[in-house]
Design the sequence.
Protein backbone atom coordinates (compact mmCIF):
# COMPACT_ATOMS: atom_id res chain seq x y z
CA UNK A 1 0.00 0.00 0.00
CA UNK A 2 3.06 2.22 0.26
CA UNK A 3 3.01 5.28 -1.95
CA UNK A 4 6.65 6.10 -1.32
CA UNK A 5 8.78 6.12 -4.45
CA UNK A 6 10.79 2.97 -5.03
CA UNK A 7 13.70 5.18 -6.11
CA UNK A 8 14.30 8.79 -5.12
CA UNK A 9 17.07 10.70 -6.86
CA UNK A 10 17.80 14.01 -5.15
CA UNK A 11 19.86 16.83 -6.66
CA UNK A 12 22.23 14.39 -8.25
CA UNK A 13 25.29 15.75 -10.03
CA UNK A 14 28.19 13.93 -11.59
CA UNK A 15 31.39 15.48 -12.89
CA UNK A 16 33.86 13.02 -14.41
CA UNK A 17 37.57 13.39 -13.85
CA UNK A 18 38.59 16.33 -16.01
CA UNK A 19 35.49 18.24 -14.92
CA UNK A 20 32.97 17.13 -17.52
CA UNK A 21 29.49 17.49 -16.02
CA UNK A 22 27.54 14.42 -17.08
CA UNK A 23 24.62 15.00 -14.66
CA UNK A 24 23.38 18.30 -13.30
CA UNK A 25 21.10 18.47 -10.28
CA UNK A 26 18.86 15.63 -11.38
CA UNK A 27 15.71 15.05 -9.31
CA UNK A 28 13.58 12.03 -10.09
CA UNK A 29 11.14 9.73 -8.32
CA UNK A 30 10.35 6.31 -9.71
CA UNK A 31 6.98 4.86 -8.75
CA UNK A 32 6.55 1.30 -7.65
CA UNK A 33 5.49 -0.98 -10.47
CA UNK A 34 5.81 1.46 -13.33
CA UNK A 35 7.72 1.27 -16.58
CA UNK A 36 9.78 4.41 -16.83
CA UNK A 37 11.58 5.22 -20.07
CA UNK A 38 14.58 7.50 -20.08
CA UNK A 39 15.00 9.08 -23.48
CA UNK A 40 17.86 11.19 -24.66
CA UNK A 41 20.32 11.67 -27.48
CA UNK A 42 23.78 10.09 -27.49
CA UNK A 43 25.93 11.23 -24.60
CA UNK A 44 23.01 12.84 -22.74
CA UNK A 45 23.82 11.05 -19.49
CA UNK A 46 21.43 8.08 -19.46
CA UNK A 47 24.03 5.43 -18.70
CA UNK A 48 25.70 7.68 -16.15
CA UNK A 49 22.40 8.18 -14.32
CA UNK A 50 21.72 4.44 -14.23
CA UNK A 51 25.28 3.71 -13.14
CA UNK A 52 25.06 6.18 -10.25
CA UNK A 53 21.69 4.81 -9.11
CA UNK A 54 23.09 1.26 -9.21
CA UNK A 55 26.14 2.36 -7.23
CA UNK A 56 28.66 1.61 -9.99
CA UNK A 57 29.70 5.24 -10.36
CA UNK A 58 29.99 7.72 -7.50
CA UNK A 59 27.99 10.92 -7.63
CA UNK A 60 29.75 14.24 -7.09
CA UNK A 61 26.82 15.50 -5.02
CA UNK A 62 23.24 14.64 -4.22
CA UNK A 63 21.88 11.28 -3.14
CA UNK A 64 19.89 8.25 -4.22
CA UNK A 65 17.46 6.30 -2.04
CA UNK A 66 16.47 2.82 -3.17
CA UNK A 67 13.40 1.72 -1.25
CA UNK A 68 14.50 4.17 1.44
CA UNK A 69 18.11 2.91 1.54
CA UNK A 70 20.87 5.39 0.76
CA UNK A 71 22.79 3.76 -2.07
CA UNK A 72 26.19 4.79 -0.67
CA UNK A 73 25.82 4.45 3.09
CA UNK A 74 23.60 1.39 2.80
CA UNK A 75 25.00 0.05 -0.45
CA UNK A 76 24.25 -3.64 0.03
CA UNK A 77 20.60 -3.15 0.92
CA UNK A 78 20.14 -0.74 -1.97
CA UNK A 79 22.00 -2.82 -4.54
CA UNK A 80 20.22 -6.01 -3.59
CA UNK A 81 16.92 -4.52 -4.68
CA UNK A 82 18.25 -3.74 -8.15
CA UNK A 83 18.84 -5.87 -11.22
CA UNK A 84 20.84 -4.33 -14.04
CA UNK A 85 20.79 -5.50 -17.63
CA UNK A 86 23.79 -3.85 -19.24
CA UNK A 87 23.99 -2.58 -22.79
CA UNK A 88 26.72 -4.80 -24.11
CA UNK A 89 26.67 -8.55 -24.43
CA UNK A 90 29.59 -9.67 -22.31
CA UNK A 91 28.69 -13.23 -21.53
CA UNK A 92 31.30 -15.88 -20.91
CA UNK A 93 31.17 -18.09 -23.99
CA UNK A 94 31.64 -21.58 -22.55
CA UNK A 95 29.50 -21.45 -19.43
CA UNK A 96 26.01 -22.94 -19.50
CA UNK A 97 22.87 -20.87 -19.15
CA UNK A 98 22.04 -22.54 -15.84
CA UNK A 99 25.47 -21.97 -14.33
CA UNK A 100 25.82 -18.33 -15.31
CA UNK A 101 22.38 -17.43 -13.99
CA UNK A 102 22.91 -19.35 -10.73
CA UNK A 103 26.30 -17.70 -10.30
CA UNK A 104 24.74 -14.23 -10.60
CA UNK A 105 22.45 -15.03 -7.69
CA UNK A 106 25.44 -16.08 -5.59
CA UNK A 107 27.08 -12.70 -6.18
CA UNK A 108 24.40 -11.11 -4.04
CA UNK A 109 25.01 -13.47 -1.17
CA UNK A 110 21.68 -15.19 -1.70
CA UNK A 111 21.44 -18.89 -0.98
CA UNK A 112 20.83 -21.37 -3.77
CA UNK A 113 17.24 -21.53 -4.97
CA UNK A 114 16.92 -23.79 -8.00
CA UNK A 115 13.14 -23.29 -8.05
CA UNK A 116 13.60 -19.55 -8.53
CA UNK A 117 16.22 -20.01 -11.25
CA UNK A 118 13.89 -22.43 -12.99
CA UNK A 119 11.00 -19.93 -12.80
CA UNK A 120 13.18 -17.17 -14.24
CA UNK A 121 14.43 -19.36 -17.09
CA UNK A 122 10.95 -20.56 -17.89
CA UNK A 123 9.55 -17.02 -17.91
CA UNK A 124 12.21 -16.04 -20.43
CA UNK A 125 11.71 -19.17 -22.57
CA UNK A 126 15.23 -20.31 -21.75
CA UNK A 127 14.35 -23.48 -19.89
CA UNK A 128 15.00 -25.76 -22.88
CA UNK A 129 18.39 -24.12 -23.31
CA UNK A 130 19.52 -24.39 -19.71
CA UNK A 131 22.29 -26.87 -20.51
CA UNK A 132 23.50 -24.93 -23.56
CA UNK A 133 26.76 -23.08 -23.52
CA UNK A 134 26.25 -19.39 -24.18
CA UNK A 135 28.27 -19.51 -27.38
CA UNK A 136 25.60 -21.71 -28.95
CA UNK A 137 22.77 -19.21 -28.37
CA UNK A 138 21.32 -16.68 -30.79
CA UNK A 139 21.70 -12.96 -30.09
CA UNK A 140 18.12 -12.73 -28.81
CA UNK A 141 18.64 -15.61 -26.40
CA UNK A 142 21.87 -14.06 -25.14
CA UNK A 143 19.94 -10.93 -24.30
CA UNK A 144 17.41 -13.01 -22.43
CA UNK A 145 20.25 -14.60 -20.49
CA UNK A 146 21.38 -11.12 -19.43
CA UNK A 147 17.87 -10.45 -18.15
CA UNK A 148 17.80 -13.82 -16.36
CA UNK A 149 21.12 -12.99 -14.68
CA UNK A 150 19.76 -9.64 -13.54
CA UNK A 151 16.66 -11.34 -12.08
CA UNK A 152 18.50 -14.21 -10.39
CA UNK A 153 18.65 -12.47 -6.99
CA UNK A 154 14.95 -11.47 -7.03
CA UNK A 155 15.30 -7.69 -7.40
CA UNK A 156 12.28 -5.42 -7.15
CA UNK A 157 13.67 -3.00 -9.69
CA UNK A 158 15.10 -3.83 -13.09
CA UNK A 159 17.21 -1.45 -15.14
CA UNK A 160 17.47 -2.17 -18.84
CA UNK A 161 20.09 -0.11 -20.64
CA UNK A 162 19.12 -0.01 -24.32
CA UNK A 163 17.41 -3.41 -24.22
CA UNK A 164 16.75 -3.60 -27.93
CA UNK A 165 19.74 -1.79 -29.43
CA UNK A 166 20.61 -3.41 -32.71
CA UNK A 167 17.98 -6.15 -32.62
CA UNK A 168 15.52 -6.81 -35.42
CA UNK A 169 11.90 -5.77 -35.27
CA UNK A 170 10.57 -9.21 -34.37
CA UNK A 171 12.99 -9.63 -31.53
CA UNK A 172 12.22 -6.14 -30.30
CA UNK A 173 8.52 -7.01 -30.03
CA UNK A 174 9.50 -10.18 -28.24
CA UNK A 175 11.57 -8.20 -25.78
CA UNK A 176 8.71 -5.77 -25.16
CA UNK A 177 6.49 -8.70 -24.30
CA UNK A 178 9.08 -10.03 -21.84
CA UNK A 179 9.35 -6.61 -20.19
CA UNK A 180 5.57 -6.29 -19.91
CA UNK A 181 5.32 -9.68 -18.26
CA UNK A 182 7.99 -8.68 -15.78
CA UNK A 183 6.08 -5.53 -14.93
CA UNK A 184 2.91 -7.56 -14.51
CA UNK A 185 4.76 -9.75 -12.05
CA UNK A 186 5.39 -6.63 -9.93
CA UNK A 187 8.89 -5.57 -10.98
CA UNK A 188 9.50 -1.85 -11.48
CA UNK A 189 11.21 -1.27 -14.83
CA UNK A 190 13.47 1.56 -15.86
CA UNK A 191 14.75 1.45 -19.41
CA UNK A 192 16.85 3.72 -21.51
CA UNK A 193 16.26 3.87 -25.20
CA UNK A 194 17.03 5.70 -28.40
CA UNK A 195 13.90 4.30 -29.95
CA UNK A 196 11.04 6.68 -29.41
CA UNK A 197 8.76 3.96 -30.68
CA UNK A 198 9.90 1.85 -27.76
CA UNK A 199 9.01 4.52 -25.21
CA UNK A 200 5.71 5.16 -26.96
CA UNK A 201 4.88 1.46 -26.89
CA UNK A 202 6.07 0.57 -23.42
CA UNK A 203 6.35 3.41 -20.96
CA UNK A 204 3.93 4.60 -18.33
CA UNK A 205 6.08 7.69 -17.83
CA UNK A 206 8.85 9.25 -19.83
CA UNK A 207 11.85 11.29 -18.77
CA UNK A 208 13.84 13.26 -21.31
CA UNK A 209 17.46 13.90 -20.49
CA UNK A 210 19.64 16.29 -22.38
CA UNK A 211 23.21 17.32 -21.62
CA UNK A 212 22.96 15.93 -18.11
CA UNK A 213 19.72 17.68 -17.27
CA UNK A 214 16.36 16.06 -16.87
CA UNK A 215 14.36 18.47 -18.98
CA UNK A 216 11.02 16.74 -18.58
CA UNK A 217 9.24 13.96 -16.71
CA UNK A 218 5.66 13.24 -17.67
CA UNK A 219 3.02 10.56 -18.03
CA UNK A 220 3.28 9.31 -21.57
CA UNK A 221 -0.37 9.93 -22.35
CA UNK A 222 -0.32 13.39 -20.80
CA UNK A 223 2.83 14.22 -22.74
CA UNK A 224 1.29 13.18 -25.99
CA UNK A 225 -1.89 15.10 -25.22
CA UNK A 226 -0.10 18.17 -23.97
CA UNK A 227 2.37 18.52 -26.74
CA UNK A 228 0.55 16.73 -29.48
CA UNK A 229 -0.96 18.99 -32.07
CA UNK A 230 -3.14 18.03 -34.95
CA UNK A 231 -2.87 19.26 -38.48
CA UNK A 232 -5.50 19.48 -41.14
CA UNK A 233 -4.14 19.83 -44.66
CA UNK A 234 -6.38 20.97 -47.51
CA UNK A 235 -5.16 20.43 -51.06
CA UNK A 236 -6.49 23.31 -53.13
CA UNK A 237 -8.00 23.17 -56.62
CA UNK A 238 -6.16 26.39 -57.56
CA UNK A 239 -2.91 27.49 -55.92
CA UNK A 240 -2.90 30.67 -53.83
CA UNK A 241 -0.09 33.24 -54.01
CA UNK A 242 -0.93 34.67 -50.58
CA UNK A 243 -3.36 33.98 -47.79
CA UNK A 244 -6.62 35.93 -48.29
CA UNK A 245 -7.47 38.37 -45.47
CA UNK A 246 -10.81 36.64 -45.05
CA UNK A 247 -8.95 33.62 -43.67
CA UNK A 248 -6.49 35.48 -41.47
CA UNK A 249 -8.20 34.62 -38.16
CA UNK A 250 -7.63 30.91 -38.61
CA UNK A 251 -3.85 31.04 -38.28
CA UNK A 252 -3.31 29.07 -41.48
CA UNK A 253 -0.06 28.39 -43.29
CA UNK A 254 0.40 28.02 -47.02
CA UNK A 255 2.35 24.95 -48.07
CA UNK A 256 3.39 23.06 -51.17
CA UNK A 257 3.97 26.30 -53.11
CA UNK A 258 0.47 27.53 -52.51
CA UNK A 259 -1.23 24.23 -53.36
CA UNK A 260 -2.08 23.39 -49.77
CA UNK A 261 -3.42 25.10 -46.67
CA UNK A 262 -2.37 23.78 -43.29
CA UNK A 263 -4.54 24.33 -40.23
CA UNK A 264 -3.00 23.42 -36.86
CA UNK A 265 -5.10 22.86 -33.78
CA UNK A 266 -4.83 21.52 -30.27
CA UNK A 267 -5.43 17.79 -30.04
CA UNK A 268 -6.84 18.33 -26.52
CA UNK A 269 -9.93 20.22 -27.47
CA UNK A 270 -12.03 18.08 -29.79
CA UNK A 271 -15.11 20.30 -29.47
CA UNK A 272 -13.27 23.51 -30.23
CA UNK A 273 -11.53 21.77 -33.10
CA UNK A 274 -14.78 20.86 -34.71
CA UNK A 275 -16.14 24.35 -34.37
CA UNK A 276 -12.89 25.81 -35.70
CA UNK A 277 -12.87 23.49 -38.68
CA UNK A 278 -16.52 24.17 -39.46
CA UNK A 279 -15.85 27.92 -39.44
CA UNK A 280 -12.76 27.48 -41.58
CA UNK A 281 -14.67 25.48 -44.18
CA UNK A 282 -17.46 28.08 -44.23
CA UNK A 283 -14.93 30.90 -44.73
CA UNK A 284 -13.25 28.96 -47.53
CA UNK A 285 -16.53 28.52 -49.29
CA UNK A 286 -17.42 32.18 -48.87
CA UNK A 287 -14.01 33.15 -50.33
CA UNK A 288 -14.58 30.81 -53.28
CA UNK A 289 -11.60 28.61 -52.46
CA UNK A 290 -12.19 25.00 -53.42
CA UNK A 291 -10.18 21.97 -52.31
CA UNK A 292 -9.68 18.51 -53.77
CA UNK A 293 -9.07 16.59 -50.63
CA UNK A 294 -8.12 16.94 -47.00
CA UNK A 295 -6.34 14.89 -44.41
CA UNK A 296 -5.44 15.14 -40.75
CA UNK A 297 -2.51 13.90 -38.78
CA UNK A 298 -1.41 13.99 -35.14
CA UNK A 299 2.17 14.52 -34.08
CA UNK A 300 3.90 11.38 -32.78
CA UNK A 301 6.05 11.11 -29.71
CA UNK A 302 9.04 11.20 -32.06
CA UNK A 303 8.17 14.68 -33.27
CA UNK A 304 7.47 15.79 -29.72
CA UNK A 305 10.85 14.50 -28.61
CA UNK A 306 12.73 16.10 -31.48
CA UNK A 307 11.05 19.45 -30.80
CA UNK A 308 11.82 19.20 -27.07
CA UNK A 309 15.46 18.47 -27.62
CA UNK A 310 15.66 21.29 -30.16
CA UNK A 311 13.76 23.77 -28.03
CA UNK A 312 16.19 23.48 -25.18
CA UNK A 313 19.28 23.41 -27.43
N1 LIG B 1 34.26 7.58 -17.48
C1 LIG B 1 34.02 8.72 -18.08
N2 LIG B 1 34.92 9.74 -18.06
C2 LIG B 1 34.67 10.93 -18.66
N3 LIG B 1 33.52 11.20 -19.33
C3 LIG B 1 32.59 10.23 -19.39
C4 LIG B 1 32.79 8.95 -18.80
N4 LIG B 1 31.68 8.20 -19.02
C5 LIG B 1 30.84 8.98 -19.75
N5 LIG B 1 31.38 10.20 -19.97
C6 LIG B 1 30.76 11.32 -20.71
O1 LIG B 1 29.55 11.67 -20.07
C7 LIG B 1 28.54 11.97 -21.02
C8 LIG B 1 27.32 11.11 -20.79
O2 LIG B 1 27.63 9.77 -21.12
P1 LIG B 1 26.56 8.60 -20.97
O3 LIG B 1 27.22 7.33 -21.37
O4 LIG B 1 25.94 8.68 -19.64
O5 LIG B 1 25.48 9.03 -22.07
P2 LIG B 1 24.25 8.21 -22.67
O6 LIG B 1 23.10 9.14 -22.62
O7 LIG B 1 24.12 6.90 -21.99
O8 LIG B 1 24.72 8.03 -24.17
P3 LIG B 1 24.46 6.85 -25.22
O9 LIG B 1 23.05 6.99 -25.63
O10 LIG B 1 25.39 7.21 -26.32
O11 LIG B 1 24.78 5.55 -24.54
C9 LIG B 1 29.18 11.77 -22.38
O12 LIG B 1 29.60 13.03 -22.87
C10 LIG B 1 30.37 10.90 -22.10
O13 LIG B 1 31.41 11.15 -23.01
Sequence:
Amino acid sequence: MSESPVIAVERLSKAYAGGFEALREVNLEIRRGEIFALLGPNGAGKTTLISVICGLVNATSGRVLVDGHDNVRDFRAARQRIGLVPQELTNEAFVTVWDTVSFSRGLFGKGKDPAHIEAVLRSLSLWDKRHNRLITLSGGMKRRVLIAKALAHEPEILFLDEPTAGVDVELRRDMWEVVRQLRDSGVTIILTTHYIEEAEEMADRIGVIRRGELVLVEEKHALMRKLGSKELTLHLREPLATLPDALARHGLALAEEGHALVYTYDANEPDEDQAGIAELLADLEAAGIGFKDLHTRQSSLEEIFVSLVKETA
Q: What stands out?
A: The mean pLDDT is 87. The chain has two domains: 7-225, 228-311.
